[in-house]
Amino acid sequence: YQRRVHGACMVCGFGERESGGGGEGLCSRMCSAIVGVVIGFILVPVFCGLIIWNEGRAVKTAKMLDEGKSKYVDAKCTLDPANDGKLVHITCPFSNTTRTYDKDFNVSSPYFRLDRGVEMYQWIEKTKEVNKKTCYYQTQGWSSTSISTSSFHPSGTCATDCNSAGFACSNPSFPANNAKIYANPLVIGTYDLPIDLADKLSTSSLITPENVVFNSKSIPDSQISGGYVYLNQIRNPPANGDFRVKWTYNPAATTISILAKQEGNTFVKWTSSYDSSYGLYEIKEGSQTADSMIEDLKDQNKVLTWILRFLFIVLIWVGLQLICGPLTVMPEIIPCIGQFIADVVGHIICYINCCLAVPIGFFFIAIGWVAYRPYIGIPLLIVGCILCLLSLGLLFMLKKSPLFEGFVKKSQPGVATYNPNTQPFVGNNGYQPSYPQPTYSNI
Q1: What pLDDT tens digit does each residue of the chain (443 aa) get?
Q2: 3-class SS at 438?
Q3: Per-residue exposure over 323-354, b if at least 16 CB sit within 10 Å of its own CB, e if not
Q4: Kind and range of the H or E run holding 133
Q5: Rounded distance, CA 214 to CA 310, Å?
Q6: How far apart are CA 203 and CA 193, in angstroms?
Q7: Cα(189)–Cα(238) distance, rounded to whole angstroms?
Q8: What residues have CB less than 8 Å from 282, skipping those under 6 apart?
Q9: Residues 6+ apart with CB under 8 A from 182
Q10: Phi, psi of 338 (to 5 degrees)
Q11: How far is 13 from 31, CA to CA, in rounded Å?
């Protein structure tokens, strides 16, 4: 306990570190809480502003979709110069005449796009909480990104458990990276299909040896198993540095529907007259009408609006939690029961902050409605204020009504009232004449 109190005088960020994997002491947690206060005072106003922004985004998106629905033109799969510069909708069969080719691995496929995913078996750092302290340890596993052991705690050292002794470790470099490979040229009907538009089509199926041409001679030690190409022999368990590759493609993209602006023999984003940052640049699998595509976008806009509302309210709550962070750490300095008190305080503050975050969020949603939907927001705000005033006035009138006063009188116990004509008199010798007794009434 004395060591922890002494640690409170240490410089922030250099708290006590536990042996065998490391951890945070009281000083580090208090300093982190103080930093959290600063972050909290930044997060709360930022996300309050983002709530208002979200309301504006929803309104502008809805206006853009309504405008697009009134302006689109159904076009054919053959180029029509008369539609140049217009918002067009086409539904055309999508058949590639050239194969997609990954030169790095001599892999080819008849589909318009291949997504190459690479993974290497390497050391990965993980953390866990042990007695309110952060513990660092390392384990091996497959990862799609290159991990440098210089970022480990401590640098260049691995420990399989929090209490294990560390040892020097390193990860080899990646022999290849993730990539998206497209057929060239990429066409639909007589139009050139932009890569950024084709990129919106998902890839979901693993390439198998039956639908991919793989030249194993270029990588002599490679093996194919479960949709993966292993660049060395398959080992169980894998060894550090083992590398494998997989490819994904979209076999369902045989018919494509596009809603975008025609520019020459290709497509670009159509922008709304309300706001140039909002527009239509959509591609969907299968045969879909423009109206159905727009209705889907409207539904997505509604769902996204509510998701962001909920997310920003939660983040406001997180900001309030950060602001109150030191209050949950300070009780830990008390011997024996400090941790218990800190947990109780933390639960109480969490509940209070949740009750504050929800009305704060809805208040700024109302401000957003007034700012971006004045024809709806202002009348609703006025009606809400009128209802509040009417409710207060009704309560005031009810309180002054005889019915309310009679109810209050009946609900209170009886008390004696003083009447000088009937108040008993007691003499010096204790003699009390026989007067009528005091009367009682309810008030």
Answers
A1: 334 333 333 333 333 334 334 445 667 777 888 888 889 899 999 999 999 999 999 999 999 999 999 999 999 999 999 999 999 999 998 776 677 888 887 777 777 888 888 999 999 999 888 877 888 899 999 999 889 999 898 888 998 888 888 899 999 988 888 988 888 888 888 899 998 998 888 777 776 655 555 554 455 567 777 778 887 767 778 888 888 888 888 776 788 999 999 999 999 999 999 888 999 999 998 899 999 999 999 999 999 999 999 999 999 999 998 888 888 778 777 777 777 887 888 888 888 888 888 888 888 888 888 888 888 778 767 776 776 677 677 767 766 666 555 544 554 555 455 555 555 555 555 555 555 555 555 54
A2: coil
A3: bbbbebbbbbeeeeebeebbeebbeebeeebe
A4: strand 133-143
A5: 48
A6: 17
A7: 47
A8: 200, 258, 259, 260, 293, 297
A9: 100, 112, 113, 195, 198
A10: -60, -40
A11: 7
Buried b (16+ CB within 10 A) or exposed e, 117-129: ebbbbbbbeeeee
Indicate the Cα dihedral angle 280, 285, 288, 294, nearest 10°: -30
pLDDT at position 437, please?
A: 54
How far is residue 41's CA from residue 56's CA, in Å, rounded to a whole number? 24
Question: What tokens were used for 37?
Answer: 């206060």
The answer, yes or no, to whether the previous bond of 220 is cis (omega within 30 of 0) is no
Helix (H) / strand (E) element for 65: namely helix 26-71
Residue 372 CB: number of other CB atoms within 10 A? 19
Tokens of 10: 């240490």
Cα 282 to Cα 280: distance, rounded to the nearest angstrom: 6
Task: Tell me the pLDDT tens digit for each residue of 188-228.
Answer: 888 999 989 988 887 777 766 555 555 544 555 677 777 78
Distance of CA 189 to the CA centre of its chain: 40
b/e burial code for range 40-74 (CB count within 10 A of at least 16 → b): beebbeebbebbbbbbebbbbbbbbbebbbeebee
Nearest to 91 by CA among 295, 296, 258, 280: 258
DSSP letter assigned to residue 414 = P
HSE (side-chain half, CA atoms, 13 Å) at 441: 6
- Both tokens assigned to 363: 């208040």
In sequence order, which residues have a C-beta less than 8 Å from that of residue 244 and are 6 or more positions away?
118, 119, 120, 142, 228, 229, 230, 231
DSSP H/E element including 370: helix 338-372
